[in-house]
Amino acid sequence: MTAVIINGKEIAEKKKQEIAEEVKRLKSQGVTPGLAVILVGNNHASRTYVTNKQKTCQELGMNSVLIEMPEEVSENELLSKIEELNQDPQIHGILVQLPLPAHINETKVIESISPDKDVDGFHPINIGRMMTGQNTFLPCTPYGIMVLLEESGISVEGKHVVVVGRSNIVGKPAGQLFLNQHATVTYCHSRTKDLMVHTKQADILVAAVGIPNFITAEHVKEGAIVIDVGINRNEAGKLCGDVAFDEVSKKASFITPVPKGVGPMTITMLMYNTLKSAAESINR
Ligand SMILES: NC(=O)C1=CN([C@@H]2O[C@H](COP(=O)(O)OP(=O)(O)OC[C@H]3O[C@@H](n4cnc5c(N)ncnc54)[C@H](OP(=O)(O)O)[C@@H]3O)[C@@H](O)[C@H]2O)C=CC1
Ligand SMILES: Nc1nc(=O)c2c([nH]1)NC[C@@H]1CN(c3ccc(C(=O)N[C@@H](CCC(=O)O)C(=O)O)cc3)C=[N+]21
């Protein structure tokens, strides 16, 4: 079988147009969605993502504020900046780019963001709401995966989904969203015995590991749908996912590439969450 390549870039463009329309409508009611991004330190990859987010905000007619802080910034300084943004009526979304330097407590920072402005969907209150199926901000990468599948006409109900990776920002919430849509979910991680026994059973296989070419054709059932979340650099410095694309795409029915797969959807869902927050702020 030769897999259909799910074009994340194209689907993201379509979604962004819809968001831009809604932004226009909100602006005509006097509200311009505003996103604040906090970047601590000078990590090159983080800077690239943050620049991308700023650019997309501008493209969609939203306001964006970039707050840069030096690597040595104290936890207290960061927390007071967040508090200031929590109070700022022009700001509807706050994103603190992760990872943070080791001297800053990530949990404390995430919990200091107002749940109403937590457009990453990382606050424990919002994670609880996601688990119980209430209205909330869904974490952008997992949400982006669900939209990619929906736009590709793939139904999730009853499917066996195997998620490799259990981070708080990708693996865990991805499994939860699939469960919410009535899939049967298996989580695998670094302590899983006989990984392949599990991955070979997947109707939908999600790879969120962070190791280039980790998932090979051997891991994949014929006709499976393969979602590659990984953003890695190979030895040649080229961007690549967690899936050995060339061999797996000969066996899968659908596959997402890297780049132009899940990545562009992550940013798009961040824009969607910021728009949603701005729209909801009117009624608060
Ligand atoms: N496309 C996008 O928008 C985004 C992409 N990413 C990318 O996705 C990838 C994963 O990110 P993230 O979840 O933050 O990464 P983490 O490093 O936080 O998590 C990696 C997960 O993979 C598991 N793992 C590691 N080695 C193995 C192994 N040998 N066998 C099975 N499981 C293993 C770990 O298990 P354990 O828990 O046991 O340690 C862990 O749960 C990265 O490449 C990252 O860059 C991340 C965010 C957004
Ligand atoms: N608080 C927080 N929220 C995040 O959402 C967050 C974070 N911290 N830290 C880092 C990860 C990573 N992440 C990506 C977003 C977009 C692409 C993306 O657009 N990738 C393009 C390629 C970009 C390139 O060329 O480098 C693609 O896959 O086509 C990738 C990765 C968000 N993250």
From TrEMBL:
UniProt-annotated binding residues for NADP(+): 165-167, 231
SUPFAM superfamilies (alphabetical): Aminoacid dehydrogenase-like, N-terminal domain (SSF53223), NAD(P)-binding Rossmann-fold domains (SSF51735)
Keyword Lyase: no
Family: Belongs to the tetrahydrofolate dehydrogenase/cyclohydrolase family.
Quaternary structure (record): Homodimer.
Functional note: Catalyzes the oxidation of 5,10-methylenetetrahydrofolate to 5,10-methenyltetrahydrofolate and then the hydrolysis of 5,10-methenyltetrahydrofolate to 10-formyltetrahydrofolate.
InterPro entries found in the cross-reference section: Aminoacid_DH-like_N_sf, NAD(P)-bd_dom_sf, THF_DH/CycHdrlase, THF_DH/CycHdrlase_cat_dom, THF_DH/CycHdrlase_CS, THF_DH/CycHdrlase_NAD-bd_dom
Protein name: Bifunctional protein FolD
Keywords linked to the UniProt accession: Amino-acid biosynthesis, Histidine biosynthesis, Hydrolase, Methionine biosynthesis, Multifunctional enzyme, NADP, One-carbon metabolism, Oxidoreductase, Purine biosynthesis
Residue ranges of every copy of the Tetrahydrofolate dehydrogenase/cyclohydrolase NAD(P)-binding domain listed in the record: 139-280
GO molecular function: methenyltetrahydrofolate cyclohydrolase activity; methylenetetrahydrofolate dehydrogenase (NADP+) activity
Keyword Oxidoreductase: yes
Domain Tetrahydrofolate dehydrogenase/cyclohydrolase catalytic, residue spans: 6-120
Underlying gene: folD
Pathway, per record: One-carbon metabolism; tetrahydrofolate interconversion
Catalyzed reactions per annotation: (6R)-5,10-methenyltetrahydrofolate + H2O = (6R)-10-formyltetrahydrofolate + H(+); (6R)-5,10-methylene-5,6,7,8-tetrahydrofolate + NADP(+) = (6R)-5,10-methenyltetrahydrofolate + NADPH
EC number: 1.5.1.5, 3.5.4.9
Annotated GO biological process: L-histidine biosynthetic process; methionine biosynthetic process; purine nucleotide biosynthetic process; tetrahydrofolate interconversion
PANTHER family named among the record's database cross-references: C-1-TETRAHYDROFOLATE SYNTHASE, CYTOPLASMIC, C-1-TETRAHYDROFOLATE SYNTHASE, CYTOPLASMIC-RELATED
GO cellular component terms attached to this protein's record: cytosol
